[in-house]
Amino acid sequence: MSPPSPVHGLDRESQRTQAARSLLTSRLADARRAEAALTRKLTPKRVHDLRVATHRLRAVLTAFHDLGDLKTQEREVKQLQDALGAVRDLHVQGTWLEEAAQKSEASRRAGFQAMHARLMSPLPDKERRLRRALVRWADRTVPALERETRRLKGPGKYGGQRVRQELGHGLRQLESLMKQRARDLTPAMVHALRTDVKKLRYEAELFVPALGRKVKPLLEALEPLQESLGELHDADVRLHLLQHFALHGPAAQRAAARTLLRDTRTERARHAARANRQLADWHDEERTHALCALLE
Question: Is residue 33 domain-shared with residue 131, that is, in the same domain?
Fold first, then answer.
């Protein structure tokens, strides 16, 4: 995952309004560059790049929502993010299925190809929706974001107590959700954890110029956890797809799906074990308290 563009000229004593303008301008520029590349050619990597850029842009809008009409704009950006996500999900699973087909016996290839064709059949419609979302983004959302950037107004310091309290609150919320997890992570719990980890990670990124060493240990803990939960989520999606094909597909698809189910369950168990080890670290009270203390 590419890092966001650096934002210069900010420190903990900067005004929140100044920081919000600088961060919003930078994250919007990142998104526009990714958008331009995607508009030229719709590829899996470019879809992913713009999706990450919209996540980071939404983090700014959420963190500084009180300085302007940013909640409305955050909902607009989410529409584009959702359209990107629908295409991205098919890209991820389609690529995985293609790789599995290449490793399979020749006698199973027809079943894999049929399964891949069925999986990817919604892609043209989702790509059309994405293109419409890109038009709306360029024509409506970007000008509105630029207007709101100029209008931002409000008190406070970029590295002030409010910022540290909000990050600490997000960390405690995540810790609470982690404590609710079952011994075996369910798909719903994986999705909820992954969403909260990603949200806190992108918000924490915003405050590196202000908090520096205080926030970097949090990022170092969140980044590998986000990766593990992402891999586990992808395995859950694959299992759901394969179980559907194994039960409801034509004979060739059923046979191909059943050849993958065992390996996919093993893969899922491996990812779950890794994620559980990482999550167990968060239950070490000394570590959690240390992360919270850094933000005080």
Answer: yes
Angle between helix 44-63 and 187-206 (nearest 10): 70
Percent of the chain residues topping a pLDDT of 90:
61
Please count the helices (runs of H) and the strands (runs of E) in the chain: 12, 0
36-48 residue pLDDT tens:
999 999 999 999 9
Kindly report whether the global pTM for this prediction surpasses the value 0.70: yes
Provide the residue range defining the domain that includes 209. Answer: 160-296
136 and 226 belong to one structural domain: no
Task: Kindly state whether residue 68 falls inside one of the protein's structural domains.
Answer: yes
Count CB-CB contacts under 10 A for residue 222.
Answer: 22
Do residues 168 and 136 both lie within one domain?
no
Among 106, 126, 150, give the residue marking a domain's end: 150
Element at 66 (helix H, strand E): none
pLDDT in tens, 131-145: 999 999 999 999 999
Instruction: For residue 15, list its beta bridge partners.
Output: 157
C-alpha separations of 219 from 35, 204, 211, 212, 281 in Å: 26, 7, 12, 11, 15
242 neighbors 260 (Cβ within 8 angstroms): yes
Is 27 within a domain? yes
Q: Which of 91, 116, 150 corresponds to the end of one domain?
A: 150
pLDDT of residue 102: 83
**For residues 51-78, average pLDDT:** 94
